[in-house]
Prior knowledge:
Order of helices and strands: HH
Largest sheet: none
Mean pLDDT: 88
Oligomer: single chain
Distance between the termini: 46 Å
Number of strands: 0
Number of helices: 2
Amino acid sequence: MLTRYTGMTAKNQSYLFTFGFVLTVLGMGLTDLWLPMVVGAILMSALMAESWIRVAHIIPMHKELRNLKQQVDQLKQQSHSQEE
Length: 84
């Protein structure tokens, strides 16, 4: 996994990578630097897909796991207090 710049939120990074991908594709159509633009488009599409997957699925999953862990801890405390 890539190291993320901590000054930006994950959603802002997704927008940034999407904007970069659009600019790269636009540059492919408007310039003669086709080969470097294809490489850039491939890299930007990978970054864009990874960042949107992280925003849509991974971050909410971590939040849900954190909530479930808190619920399990509460249940353990309740069962421990009932045993005493």
